[in-house]
Amino acid sequence: MKAGIGRRLWGAGVALLFSVAATPVWAETCVIDDADREVCLAQPASRIVALSPGATELVFAAGAGDQVVGVVSFSDYPPEAKQRQSVGSHTRLDLETVLSLEPDLLVGWVTGNPHEQLEKLQRLGMSLYLSEPRRFEEVATSLERLATLAGTRERGQVAADEFRAGVGELRERYADASPVRVFYQVWDEPLMTVNDEHLISQAISLCGGKNVFGELPRLVPRIGEEAVLAADPEAIVAGGMGEENRDWLDDWERFEELNAVRRDNLFFVPPSLIQRPTPRLLEGTRILCDHLETARGRH
Fold first, then answer.
1. Please, which residues have CB within 8 angstroms of residue 227's CB and are 6 or more apart in sequence?
2. From edge to edge, which strands make up the β-sheet containing 180-185?
3. Which three-class secondary structure state does DSSP give residue 184?
4. Which of 26, 260, 278, 296 is the most exposed place for a label (fewest CB within 10 A)?
5. How many CA atoms lie within 13 A of 257 on its CB side?
6. Considering only CA atoms, which of 161, 168, 211, 205 is closest in space to residue 186?
7. Which helix (H) or strand (E) holds 268?
8. Which PROSITE patterns does the record match to this protein (predicted)?
9. pLDDT, tens digit, 9 for 90 and up, residues 82-101
């Protein structure tokens, strides 16, 4: 009798041992975000809320699109992102909706989200990764770090490697290109541009261009039309109020004294391809490089 009980207990112990061994064990995973903060998760994120359109693109590109449960307005890429629950805009989050989604990871925007709302979410126990790549390489490392937190490392690594390779090809192709003096218009009213710390200016440099306002102290400085006339760029590049809206460029055609106007060097790049720090920045930079190559031919 006792022997039978012993055998049953031994069998139960072996079964329990195999059950434990078959259960995935995740060590705590930590990364450093773009605000130089350590972000740690006990398990891979399974419910992610992205708090900017750029963050949404990065998470999907890192292979974690299936884990995204919430996004902000204008999160229009990839198309699947439009099917996710809206949590307000990046400038005003709907905290009640964010909390109702029970996220285990928020991906915020360093300078784009309201600090007080991010702080409140953290006080409520939310894990927050702050994103704002400022260099091409940081786009690649963002993919790697987000993939690490989401448990999609292989897919994130592939995306990061492809991005690095594409940037390397452009850097080699335009390394000896003659410089083109460029004004990039990021907004119309007030008139705004970018300095050399901005990713857009680094894209200009990658294509062999020179940002005529690159030395200004602010990342996104306000300027006047007079400043553009004084700088007299060889090319003017702009996005617009939409992916196909060239109205901002049309406004410059009245300044016939500008070299960019005389040479017909008024170029459009869809804003989502160059104003978001995501892998699609590579596509936008290729378009920009083609435009600047056209400008070179009109010297």
1. 213
2. 209-211, 180-185, 235-238, 266-268
3. strand
4. 26
5. 7
6. 211
7. strand 266-268
8. FE_B12_PBP (PS50983)
9. 999 999 999 999 999 999 99
